[in-house]
Amino acid sequence: MVQYPQIDRAFAALADPTRRGLLERLGRGTATITELADPVGISLTGMKKHVRVLEEAGLVTTEKVGRARQVSLGPRRLDDLQEWIDMYRQMLDERLDRFGELLERTQQGDQQ
Amino acid sequence: MVQYPQIDRAFAALADPTRRGLLERLGRGTATITELADPVGISLTGMKKHVRVLEEAGLVTTEKVGRARQVSLGPRRLDDLQEWIDMYRQMLDERLDRFGELLERTQQGDQQ
Fold first, then answer.
1. Assembly ipTM
2. Cβ atoms within 10 A of the Cβ of B78, count?
3. Which one of A39, A112, B6, B99 is most buried, counting C-beta atoms within 10 A?
4. Cβ-defined contact of A15 to B21 (cutoff 8 Å)
5. Nearest C-alpha of chain B: how many angstroms from A92?
6. Nearest Cα to Cα of residue B61 among B34, B36, B26, B37
7. B30-64, pLDDT tens digit by residue?
8. A73, B92: Cβ pair inside 8 Å?
9. pTM of the full predicted structure?
10. CB B110 within 8 A of CB A92
């Protein structure tokens, strides 16, 4: 089986509402770990862990500025996640179409 | 913070290539746990765990047929994941636009 570590990491990183909230916050601008941690009531250690998970998935970048660590939104556009979800939804559509055809044939059979 | 357990479960379920592979397999038709486990060389116990994760995320449904458990693709269309990803990508676009404008203003400043 082909492994996609980066797509795995992105899906896993997005599986947590705190981390999705962080990305939404960073969409409004760069912030330090402290500025991210304070409003959501998470310890600095906890916030660093969340930021690391997002960074490993390419979703944020961090930069040391003086004594603080600045976090900003990464360049990752989630194209691979999008591609997989598109494929999956198309598969569901095709299944629904086949089910519709089957239903139609069954009803025609009843009328004969 | 608002919790979205179902969207969390779906993202987490998709973070594993074996589970994404199972969904692709089930797109070609219903299968028993044994039929899913054999070709990928996973134990029945391991496969049951993967199927449970997918079932809890609403991605598959299972049905006991005789002594076997039939697994089929669930009705879940990932609309909430799609909505979140769309919002995120739009945010990236807006940031890129703002960066472009800034660059343009900087260049105009240089020419004056």
1. 0.85
2. 22
3. B6
4. no
5. 7
6. B26
7. 999 999 999 999 999 999 999 999 999 999 999 99
8. yes
9. 0.86
10. no
